[in-house]
Amino acid sequence: MQGFPVNRRRVLGMALAAPAILGAKARAAGVIQMISHRYPALEHFAEKMRGAIPGVAVNTQLMPVDKAMELATIALSSKSDTPDIVWASDTTFQNFVKNGWFRPLDDLWAKFRDEFKLDDYPDAVLAPYRHEGRLYVLPHTVNTMMFFYRSDLFAKAGKTPPKTISEYRDLAKSFHSPMRAGTISCLKPVDAAVNEAHWYLNALGDGWFDKDWHPAFNTPKSVAAIEVLKDVTRYAQQGFTTAANDECTIALQQDTASMGLQWATRAKSMDDPAKSRIVNLIEWVPPPQGHARIAGDGYAISAYSKQDPETLFRIIATSSSQASMRQAAALLIPPRKSLLDDPELAKANRFYPAALASYETGMRAPSLPEFNAIGEFVTRRILQGVTGELSVKQALDTAAAETETFLKGHGYYK
Amino acid sequence: MTALSPRRRGPFHRQRGAWWLFLLPSGVVLTGVMLFPLGYAFWLSLHNYDLGSGSRDFIGLGNYAELLGDERFWNTLLRTVAIVMTAVSLEFCLGLMVAYGLYRLTFGVRVLNLLMFLPNIVTPVVAALFLRWIFIGRWGLVSGLLISWGIFPPDFLGDPVWARVTVVLADAWQFTPFMILVLYAGLNTVDQSQIEAAQIDGAGVWTLLFHIMLPSIRPLIVFVLAIRLMDAFRFFDTLYVLTAGGPGTATETITLYTYALAFRLLQVGKACALGVLTLVCVAMLVAVMIRVVYRREKGAF
Known about the structure:
Chain A contains 18 helices and nine strands. Chain A is of the alpha+beta class. At the A-B interface, helix 3, helix 11 and helix 17 of A face helix 12 of B.
């Protein structure tokens, strides 16, 4: 038998090559990294991902939405092979896809269609996650903003839920007192302020953009809409300019506000005696005049991941299986038909009827990859208008000029 | 004085060579973690590097010209200077008073020093979250206390003036202990014979402080103020959590603008240019401060 000749040069060569070889293998079979926004429903899905495949370790990093996006942007823009799985919403995924940071899922979707009953997803839920005909995100939630109101206060005052924003403003005024605000208002830049402005701009104004992506948020109707928003904030809780969903939810739970717009995923916590002083006192209806924001969460696979795509898809799909979504049904609106039509779930979660009705009248954010970036300076200007640093018209005109410049720099308006 | 023979000069020269060897590790680390990133940031600042559009064209000083003509840059810069100056002045005055108090204290100094230093070792984001729950409107700790005493609280984070005050207080709460520690250590280095001589001449407590002790620790004062100025200019975590720059733009500082450029608008080149401009501003501010403190002493620094 010819032996393996061992000499000094060969040993040195092996020593140098070993870390690279072992490192590559260790990375391929190593811990799968996931980055996500955090709220109770997504915490549930993260837990399911960690236990999705026995023997496959998944490290789930959950953090506030801004931080999650920041981390994902830094990693993916530098073509890092981590994270492997990235949280995405209907507004954030577009920019990532445009930059080539996400892997299309169509082949994996076709392969695992039967195993994970993927036909259970309605087309309307998948459509926002397609770019140039290809699917990039596996949806986990459907979310919609609903109108939360205190049934006891309304009954005592002989009032009914508002049908128009004008009625809403009058009710906010009538319920407002130093100890309990007339309404919640969540205007923390950027995401919370975008959500609230979205409702006013679409219900009363001309929306965000025209069909050629020119700003429509500074038309006379839109300026009037933001003036109404400003007027309503006179009856909002203290610190509304720095309040996001958490602060607004707590304001309702702690009986320091009477009503307002909030996400359906926050509804169940109103009845949690460990967190809420108003158990069973909140009711929900669709937002007056509709057009409030609808959105959703899901997970995508990084285009730079070195992990096996089938393993990654299996982890994501396991976390969004029917069984997993049924367990989390109190925390979200499940995007699967079988669960949406389930009378048992509707009975167990009394906010479902209002959530589904809100979804019918709601509106998604513009399908513009740059919308998140534009939100930064538009909400900044809107807040300048609301707090009186600028007039609303001046603020929106300035924001429109900034938007035109920004989009022009990104190849629009040729 | 006789010249050293080549034989005697040899080891000395060899020793001088060895000094460089000792400096090498720290030099390599500094180059790796400070000079290279700084140089790379400067290089990126000369490009229209936009993660959103994928462009990365060399534009020379274009980003700098754009920023210098940008109203938001000047507004955030002025606001930053105002917040930093107020916060650092407050921290210095409070720090000096407490340090002098500790200096004159005859017992319990160590325990008090340790307790007062606690806010400084809390992670800024965690500290900011504490402070947010303390100052948040209506159900925050301060508001709750005021309401229980029958006083309706102001909107600490929602009113522009109160928001600025809260931000300054938050910074002072966290960084005054650093001032106390350094100044207290400095006061303890003052020559006892000078103090005793002044006391024999009838100097009181305040005369001792302002005419003997403070002039003696002037280099330390410059050092601590320079460190805090540089640090406060980078003030981000607390602001981001407490007010996110609001209400409106009342507390929007230059670091928040840099963050928005880099991570919201994805304009990395412009964000790097803003970072370099911030560095220049801080360097100028520190140079001015040193010049003011040492205006009568040529070549002090």
